[in-house]
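User: Could you check the structure of this?
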Amino acid sequence: MLLEGKNVFFTGGSRGIGHDAVLELAKHGANIAFTYVNNEASAAKTAEEIKAINPNAKVMFYQLNVKDSKQVEKVADKAIEDMGSINVVVNNAGNLNDNLVVNMSDEQWFDVINTHLSGTFFVCRSFINEFLYNKGGKFINTSSITYTGSAGQANYSAAKAGIIGFSRALAKEWGKKNIYTNIIVPGYYDTELTRANATEIVVDNFVRMSSLKRAGQGYEYGRAIVFFASDLSSFVNGHVLEVTGGLETIPPI
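Assistant: Sure, the predicted structure tokens are below.
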């Protein structure tokens, strides 16, 4: 198995494509420490699913608000203690708080920026010393095709574009220490969140503009994470991998 013996810390692993991705990691032998925001029952169910796939896997889950830097540090330290070490960190936690720029409040702007961009920074910073101690490690940070600009989502678009710049800087800072940083750009995926927030017209536009003419499935995002987490990507650093089904931009309003 590609990830046997690897210990993965994964933010936002209890629902959506994060949930599907941690199950994909489990299929390849990873031990997984994942986080959730509020729904402990959902997190416990995900842990059971991981164990059903790989009974030998070590699985831990923690409540975490990635916007809180002190809480991030505390949970990171606890995960390292519980797992023994962390080899791979996946930043997947996210949220939406949409509005047109003219109507967007400061709270809406910073809610999304702090979750996606600041949260990614806080998590990566909290594990750099662990990777230095281990003489290597892998950061896998999640952007979005909205980095190209999505009307009504200026906060989300800015955060996801920022993650790419931040991650490439991190790759240049620490590549010489065998610390990798790569970026995954998902397109439109069929998830609980998208089904609840996207109208039929919006979904049709996403599908029409993708060259595969379909929505992505969470396990396909998970397979990209497996690639970056495994030795298959041993000469890949600072790379942006679009897992979009050929969707190159966001349809206008």
